[in-house]
Amino acid sequence: MKTQVSKxxxxxxxxxxxxxxxxxxIDEWAKEEDNRELFFEYLAMWESQNPQFIADDRKALExxxxxxxxxxxxxxETESTPIEEPVIQQLGSTWYRWLVAxxxxxxxxxxxxxxxDSIRYTTFETGFGQTRSLTLADGxxxxxxxxxxxxxxxxxxGQKTREVVLAGEADFSIKHLPNHQNFVVRTDKHFEVVVLGxxxxxxxxxxxxxxxxxxxxxxxxxxxxxxxxxxxxKPGNLVTFxxxxxxxxxxxxxxxxxxSWKEHRYVFDGTTLSEIGTLFKENYGIVLQIxxxxxxxxxISGAFKAYSADELLExxxxxxxxxxxxxxxxxxxxxxx
Length: 337
Fold this sequence. Notes:
The chain has helices spanning 7-15, 20-30, 33-49, 57-78, 85-91, 94-120, 273-284, 293-296, 309-319; strands spanning 121-125, 132-135, 141-144, 149-153, 163-167, 169-173, 183-186, 191-195, 199-203, 209-215, 218-224, 227-233, 237-241, 247-251, 265-272, 287-289, 299-305, 322-327, 330-335. With 337 residues, it is an alpha+beta fold. A hairpin with a 2-residue loop joins strand 18 and strand 19 (330-335). Helix 1 (7-15) crosses helix 3 (33-49). The protein is globular and about 80 Å long. The relative contact order is 0.06.
């Protein structure tokens, strides 16, 4: 029989008024994935109704002190030893209260920070070798490449904000809204993309940070050294960031090729084997080792369809006349003589 949790019991839980049994029941209930959305919805409701809520740390500490005293009293009574006044005075001393206060504050701070992030955002993720298509509440369509994640605000998206956070690589088709509200893609790589309605690709991976614009117009906000800069991109623009944050802008005739992975198609244009090795690591979690440095700089051009890492590896090694062997978690590439 599934546990039933009422709105009233949830609000009491958030306010700290739930009994021990109620807390246990709600904790078990919230573990069910089908119940989490309702849990977060009522939490947001409770937070909006209690914007000035401030914990009374004095009362909390006093309650904690009384509980501690109760524990000591029970322990002493079990030993048939009378409670001595000095023990009570020690428990009530200033240093002890400060210690409890510091411990409680730290737990609340750390736990609240971690928990709040999961409350504020819904996170969509892909594993190695996976892609995933999403349609957001505002009608925008996003395709996540492998080994990527997108965080979307759980509440108010499309009304109060259209800001998302990307880690990895994704292709965006943004719907223009009547109120001209911006759509913002934030990253942890010191740049963000601001758009109204357009199609573009963003890659935030360590070795291949780039933005490619297919249609429309976007504004790129980035940091170069200690200076904040901005750049307005036009269709066909390809902007790349090196590991120092330096920006390079060039024009590409076929910007759609940079998101061809959506159709399981890989387009290479003078791409070195070393760069292809980076693709395998980022998309499939596979390490390609090329002991011959000259071979690592050999290039491959062409478009190849592949639905898996094995299929792509077989195709590339076949057309380039290469051998490969697996050693543990590493694929070693050599020239076929």
